[in-house]
Amino acid sequence: MELLPRSPAEFGSARYWDRFFRHRGQRPFEWYGAFPELCPVLRKYVRPRDKVLVVGCGNSELSEQMYDVGMCEDIVNIDISDAVIRQMRERSASTRPKMSYLLMDMLQMDFPDAHFQVVLDKGTLDALLTDEEEATLAKVEQMFAEISRVLQVGGRYLCVSLAQAHVLKKAVEYFSQEGWVVRVHQVASSGDKEQFVLPVFVYVMTKFRKIPGSAAQILEICPEEQDKPMRVESAERLVAAVKDRQHYALLCSQISKTPCREQVSLDLCDKESGKPRYTLHVVDSPSVKPSRDNHFAIFIIPQGRETEWLFGTEEGRRQLAASAGFGRLLTVALHREQHYEGMAGIQAELSGKVMELAPPGLPARQQVPFLSVGGDIGVRAVRHCDSSPLSGEFVVEDVKGDGTCYFRRLIFLQNRNVVQSEARLLAPAPLPGQKKRRKDKKKPSPTEPPGAIDKSYLCCEHHKAMVAGLCLLGGPDALPGELAVLVVGLGGGSLPLFVHDYFSQARVAVVEIDPSMLEVATRWFGFSQGDRMQVHISDGLDYVAKLAAEAPAQYDAVMFDVDSKDLTVGMSCPPPAFVEKPFLQKVKTILKPEGVFVLNLVCRDARLKESVLATLRDVFPLLYARRIQGEVNEILFCQPGPAGRRGPAELGARARALEGALRQPGRPWDSSYALADMLQAVHIL
Question: Which parts of this chain are annotated as the region Disordered (predicted)?
Answer without folding.
Answer: 429-450
